[in-house]
Amino acid sequence: QQQQQQQQQQQGPAPPTARIFQGPGRHCDPAWAQGNYIVSEHAEAHADCVSSVAIAGQVAVTTGYDGSVKVWSLCSNGGPPSLVKPLTGHSGRVEAVCADAASQRAVTSGRDSSLKVWALGTAPQTAASSHLLHSHYVYESVPCLAVDWNASPPVAALGATSGNISLFELDTGRKLGVLKRHDAEVSAVLWMAHPEAQPASATEGAQNSGSKGAAAGLLVSGSQDGGLMVWDVRQPRSAVLAGRLQGVRKRVCSLAASAHLLYVGDYSSSIKIYDMRKLAGPSHMVSPVARLPAAPSADAFGDVCPVAGMIVDPKAKIMLNSGIAWWSDEQWEALVEASEDEPLPTAVLNVHAVEGQVDEYLNTVRLGSGIATCAALQESYALVGCSTGSLFSVAVCKREMKGNAGMGARLCTGLLVGCEELE
């Protein structure tokens, strides 16, 4: 008890849970608020865990623990994505991918200590022409990366197992600098706008999505031991630590941003929100300004798991986050608790309307067996990678799509199971 009290005193008072919207989805894209979806599964998309996914135009790129990189054509009627071609070149587990539709490039990294840049056809008719442009040996195993596509030239941040973050000029492979402060493996990195130079629109430069705007001024890095740091990278060759964030539990699993707000998914049942305007130097610890519940309710057999798939779309004012529940597969439409010998939970996607620190839970989308490990979103279409190697697509079902769902897809309504923080 004394240790718990000391820990609470060090961390300060718990941040408030976010407030709730008054109307049902009135602040978000109404298509998401209606809660009608087309869900499909591409089983065995990878032979092992799907580690990362990115969407660029009409194609997607996935990476896996099986050592493969794959290009997919997205289905316009909500069906599962179609495999176009594998991209060969990595010799070990591939863990991260970023893609940009405007420059038609994808970038991958993994355990083979290489940074690979690919020419990416972003339309179904050009996707098959995707190929390797150049490869750079970076001397460290790289489990995560992020690219500032708006920088000129683009800059890649590589989080390494050593705890270092290396900055590389993407076009030349020239190393710009190394950031050294983490004591454990870097598990997530994200570029975002500096609060002193906010973009004209909150949708610019916030999600490593390739949207054109000002170059990012901040780099956020999280590690396996819960370390969370913010770097001022307005001058990449002389980047400095701008602040430290506290309140994260165990591993930092996912990062997202909207304007000056940072959303952090960790190994708990809540998403932490930080205000980058509160940064006050490397010796100052910044606490969350709010928490958003991230687990399906206990009454619906929800459970705690890493929030590995989290996306915030500032334009649609939507947040998606992964979760798990222990549901039986025998009755798909009914929520029946799984038997005690069930080896795998059910992966779910929680849908929230978000505006700043304010959150409204909308519904929960049932995916399939396993744990969601990564996710990508483009307008009303999401792709979710799973620990089992499956790739799920979730498309908002619009009126013209209801009678034309793709082969293997199912029409479903978001489940109202609630979202809460669990012990």
From TrEMBL:
<protein>
    <submittedName>
        <fullName>Uncharacterized protein</fullName>
    </submittedName>
</protein>
<dbReference type="InterPro" id="IPR001680">
    <property type="entry name" value="WD40_rpt"/>
</dbReference>
<dbReference type="InterPro" id="IPR036322">
    <property type="entry name" value="WD40_repeat_dom_sf"/>
</dbReference>
<feature type="region of interest" description="Disordered">
    <location>
        <begin position="1"/>
        <end position="26"/>
    </location>
</feature>
<keyword id="KW-0677">Repeat</keyword>
<keyword id="KW-0853">WD repeat</keyword>
<feature type="compositionally biased region" description="Low complexity">
    <location>
        <begin position="1"/>
        <end position="11"/>
    </location>
</feature>
<feature type="repeat" description="WD">
    <location>
        <begin position="87"/>
        <end position="128"/>
    </location>
</feature>
<dbReference type="Pfam" id="PF00400">
    <property type="entry name" value="WD40"/>
</dbReference>
<dbReference type="InterPro" id="IPR015943">
    <property type="entry name" value="WD40/YVTN_repeat-like_dom_sf"/>
</dbReference>
<dbReference type="InterPro" id="IPR050505">
    <property type="entry name" value="WDR55/POC1"/>
</dbReference>
<feature type="repeat" description="WD">
    <location>
        <begin position="43"/>
        <end position="74"/>
    </location>
</feature>
<feature type="repeat" description="WD">
    <location>
        <begin position="218"/>
        <end position="241"/>
    </location>
</feature>
